[in-house]
Amino acid sequence: xxxxxxxxxxxxxxxxxxxxxxxxxxxxxxxxxxxxxxxxxxxxxxxxxxxxxxxxxxxxxxxxxxxxxxxxxxxxxxxxxxxxxxxxxxxxxxxxxxxxxxxxxxxxxxxxxxxxxxxxxxxxxxxxxxxxxxxxxxxxxxxxxxxxxxxxxxxxxxxxxxxxxxxxxxxxxxxxxxxxxxxxxxxxxxxxxxxxxxxxxxxxxxxxxxxxxxxxxxxxxxxxxxxxxxxxxxxxxxxxxxxxxxxxxxxxxxxxxxxxxxxxxxxxxxxxxxxxxxxxxxxxxxxxxxxxxxxxxxxxxxxxxxxxxxxxxxxxxxxxxxxxxxxxxxxxxxxxx
Length: 337
Fold this sequence. Notes:
The chain is of the alpha/beta class. It folds into 3 domains: 2-55, 434 Repressor (Amino-terminal Domain), CATH 1.10.260; 69-167 and 304-328, 3-Layer(aba) Sandwich (Rossmann fold); 169-300, 3-Layer(aba) Sandwich (Rossmann fold), CATH 3.40.50.2300. It has 13 helices and 14 strands. It has helices at 12-19, 23-31, 38-51, 57-62, 83-98, 114-121, 138-146, 169-182, 195-199, 203-219, 232-243, 260-270, 303-318, and strands spanning 2-5, 8-11, 69-75, 102-108, 127-130, 150-153, 164-167, 187-194, 222-228, 251-254, 280-285, 297-300, 326-328, 331-333. The strands form 3 sheets. A 6-stranded parallel β-sheet has the order 4-3-5-6-7-13, sandwiched between helices. It has a 6-stranded mixed β-sheet with strand order 9-8-10-11-12-14, with helices on both faces. α12 links the parallel β10 and β11. α1 (12-19) crosses α2 and α11 (232-243) packs parallel to α12. The longest helix is centred in the middle third of the chain and has 17 residues, at 203-219.
């Protein structure tokens, strides 16, 4: 059991030598598993303070102690490193801090869980929170097999019973499509998530398309669905092609927030006659000022609410209890309303 201080590594052996006791005695003082004389205990505590020694979380876990640490697992692929993901990191970290916990970040490729496995196997975290869940996610399977308490930010129910908190993509699409239909639109373009996200099988990306399509069908409207590309030129070409589609779209919905401003500008250049507040909607924004879609009609999900709920559910899971899963409904803000 060692801890580093600068370039120097302090071990339990160092503590034992400084205190003039055995390593076993140091272990007993740390764990409280045996009665130790006040004189010996004070000598060990003094050595710990002088050497600035802190027992590591893995060793604490071997003694059955809580680490008061959560691990947030998020894919490291550049495809997901956009503004929204960064906000999630910050809000989950803040929620953990308010709950009195530390937060570790495990970054793996979408089809891997090596970092998460290392952290959970060593018991450095009491529970895991999974972001960006994909179809048949290997992280979910691994955690279910080894019994690690975990919850998902995103609904994994097609293949798992893991508790989750999610943004309600069906309600998101319904709010936006119903509003556009009420404003007289019968044909619209939906700028969906990226090729990367959809090809990886990220469930939020698939549900975004499903939600908009279902809402349009129920309202008797037509929706042209466009996968987004992170290549700016390719993105513009794809949107241009759909703006000339039949039936000709008169409205735009966009979930690809990194490209929202460009998509809105491109659409309005072709439709200078329309009211931007009643024909262009940004979906799933964070509600923050200055972010994508902040100056437009938009649906808003509270990242803070999702983060707070995820941390609360993870802490409950760490005690062996189970929270009911929850989907949070977006707000709808109309420009100029």
